[in-house]
What does this fold into?
Amino acid sequence: MRLKTGDKVVVTSGSNKGKEGKITKILDDRVIVEGVNIVKKHLKPKNNNGNGEIVEVEAPIHVSNVMLLDPKTKKPTKVRIEKDSKGKKIRISKKSNEKID
It folds into this structure.
């Protein structure tokens, strides 16, 4: 996968199309983006006297529905991976040919 935790992404499809945010967590083929895809979760009461509550939680989005933002142009871009002189893999934006890390 070409995405990492902390990357800025934009949602490309679905009801949250066009929203931007940072990746907070990566699950197998899904990502959780900060402030995007908010759903309401109903929680049961913890004890006999307590009340249940409704909490807003960020739900995961499939990785095919997000694209990385180019650091220079701030537009969605594809990524290619190359090796530097030391043999370490680096991610490069296809729009601006800038390093993404």
